[in-house]
Amino acid sequence: MTSYKELGLVNTKDMFAKAINGGYAVPAYNFNNMEQLQAIIQACVETKSPVILQVSAGARKYANKNLLKNMARGAVEYAHELGYDIPIVLHLDHGNSFELCKDCIDTGFSSVMIDGSSLPYEENIALTKQVCEYAHSRPDYVTVEGELGVLAGVEDEVSAAESHYTKPEEVEDFVSKTGVDSLAISIGTSHGRCKFTPEQCTRSADGILVPPPLAFDVLEAIEKKLPGFPIVLHGSSSIPVEYVKEIEKYGGKVPDSVGIPEEQLRKAAKSAVCKINIDSDGRMAMTAAVRKVLAEQPSEFDPRKYLGPARDELKKMYSHKNIEVLGSAGKA
Ligand code: G3H
Ligand code: 13P
Ligand code: ZN
User: Fold this and answer.
1) What is the pLDDT of residues 20-48, one digit of tens each?
2) For residues 255 and 253, what is the distance between their CA atoms, to the nearest angstrom?
3) Largest CA distance in the chain
4) Alpha-carbon Rg of the chain, whole angstroms?
5) Which among 232, 241, 125 has a CA at the least distance from the CA of 177?
6) DSSP label at residue 231
7) Are 235 and 186 in contact (CB under 8 A)?
C-alpha cells in the first residue's frame, strides 16, 4: 500500500472548491511518457497552475504502472526543483472496474474515475458507490469522479457510438446515492480528433469545420440541481487547425479534424466545470512537431532531436491552455 501523500500528491477536494469559487477549471492532462510529463510540469510550474496528471488504463499498459507511479513522484520533485510547488493530483482516467480503481488507490493515486456511464443507471450507481466507499475509507481520502451521460467518440479503450446528454433530473439522485466527489457530464464534447462529423458542422469562409455549440442549457440545469458541486468535462481538446495543417504539410493524414472551440471551454471554465480533460491536443502537438523534424532533417536519428522539439511544443500549448482557456494560471 502506498499513500498518495508519501508521493507528495494531493486529492481534488480543495483544488475543486477553489476552482469553483475562483471561476476557473483545473487542467487534467493525460500522459504516457516522460516528455509529456516534463512538458506538463514545466508549463504548470511556469504558469503557477494546479494540475491533474491523468493516467488511462491504456497508459498503464503502455508505460507500466510502477513506472508511472514513480514518474508522478518524480514530477512532484521536478516541480519543486523548478522553483514552485504546485498542487499535483494523480488521477485514473476512465477506470472501468472496481479492481482497477482499487489497484490505483492502493498504489498511490490520489483520485480515480469510475466510468459506469455505459451501464444501466442502477448498475452505474452500484459500481460507483462501491468505488467511493473504498476510496473514502482510506485514511488519506482518495477522491472519486463518476460519470452520467455518454460521450460520442472513439479512443483506444474508451468508445461510445452515440452521445446522450446527461439528464439533469438524474444528477442529484446519482450524487447522493453514490457519494462521488465530482461528476463528469455529457453536453456535446467527445473524445478524440474528430468530435463531430462534417455533416454536423458548418464551414467557415476558408473551409474550416465549425462545430455545433455545447449544450450550455443542460449544464445550467445541472448546476441548478447541484449548486456548487464539481463538474467535469471530458473530450475537451480544441484540435487546433495549425496542428492539423502542420501534420498534413509533413505527410500526415488527419481529415475531418474538429474540436471544441476555446471560447466555449473558457465559458464552461467560469461555471461549476472545475476539471477539463485534454489528451488529443497533446497528441496533435507532438505529432506535428515530430513530423516536421523528421521531414526537414531526414538523416536525424537521435530521438532527443525530435522528442525535444515535441516537448517544447507541448509545453507552449499547455501554457496557452492554462492562461487563455482554463484560467488556472496563477491559481496554484
Ligand atoms: O479519454 C481517453 C483518453 O484520451 C485516454 O486515451 O485510452 O488511448 O490512453 P487512451
Ligand atoms: P480529448 O480526446 O478531447 O483530448 O479528451 C480527453 C479525455 O477526455 C480524457 O479523459
Ligand atoms: Zn475522457
Assistant:
1) 999 999 999 999 999 999 999 999 999 99
2) 6
3) 60
4) 19
5) 125
6) E
7) no
